[in-house]
Specification:
Number of helices: 7
Largest sheet: 5 strands, parallel
Protein name: Two component transcriptional regulator, LytTR family
Helix content: 25-40%
GO molecular function, one term: DNA binding
Number of domains: 2
Structural class: alpha/beta
InterPro entries: CheY-like_superfamily, LytR-like, LytTR_DNA-bd_dom, Sig_transdc_resp-reg_receiver
CATH class of the largest domain: Alpha Beta
Keywords: Phosphoprotein
Number of strands: 15
Organism: Chryseobacterium oranimense
Oligomer: single chain
Order of helices and strands: EHEHEHEHEHEEEEEHEEEEEH
Length: 232
């Protein structure tokens, strides 16, 4: 497993020194940067994605909760602070741990290891999503196609065409059967003749659905409300 990349933000320099000392003693804890100024930290984190941020809460100019909410992505977070009244708010933000100063090494180590476990679980879930696939018969052969490769499904009476980035498959099946069989994977009907993956939709208007690969497909009037409800 790769090292846990960390940035720490605290307006008290002795606290940052202690975090540096603790991280040096924990295998796989890679402390990249420390910041006393939360605005400098925010600018750095917007440009550099890290696994974990260790944040003080009560800081000048911007508190730790505000900093976390302004990030364009959601890293793991440990709050390390003198304040106790923000614990409920912190856990609403799905923080890994809430540590109250002063914190001893063993407590800090357990919090870091908990962050490692969270990251490992998150990565395994994301990898599983990448490997999602469907199986179907086409031309008397069972085919396995990754979801990421599916562009759209088009119906032609008793047959459907499954279009991928590299190949077109003709399947003896009805649209309604395909929709029912695979809807739990994110397929959604947008027209009487078209089904797409919701994760591949870039945008839509009153008459069309636009996919992330640039394709434009028709949006049926009877499917607009269900599409809007699904995506919102």
């Amino acid at each position: 497993m790769a090292n846990l990349t960390i940035v720490s933000v605290d307006d008290e320099y002795p606290a940052l020194q202690l975090i540096q000392k603790y991280c040096e003693q924990i295998e796989g804890a890679d402390l990249l940067k420390v910041f006393q100024n939360p605005e400098d930290a925010l600018n750095y984190l917007k440009q550099n994605k890290v696994d974990l941020v260790i944040l003080d809460i009560n800081m000048p100019y911007m508190n730790g909760i505000e900093l976390l909410r302004q990030l364009p992505y959601k890293p793991l977070c440990i709050f390390l602070t003198l304040e106790t009244q923000y614990a409920v708010k912190a856990f609403e933000l799905d923080v890994v741990h809430y540590l109250v100063k002063p914190v001893d090494f063993e407590t800090f180590r357990k919090a870091i290891n908990k962050a490692k476990d969270f990251l490992q679980f998150k990565n395994s879930v994301e990898q599983q999503k990448k490997e999602d696939f469907i199986m179907f018969k086409s031309n008397y052969v069972m085919n396995k196609v990754l979801l990421d490769d599916v562009r759209w499904i088009q119906g032609f009476g008793e047959y459907i065409i499954l279009m991928t980035h590299l190949k077109k498959y003709m399947i003896l099946d009805r649209m309604s059967n395909f929709e029912e069989k695979f809807q739990n994977l994110g397929f959604i009907r947008i027209h009487k003749s078209y089904i797409v993956l919701s994760s591949h939709i870039s945008s839509y208007d009153t008459a069309h659905v636009y996919l992330k690969d640039g394709e434009k497909l028709p949006l049926g009037r009877t499917y607009k409300n269900s599409l809007k409800a699904y995506l919102n």
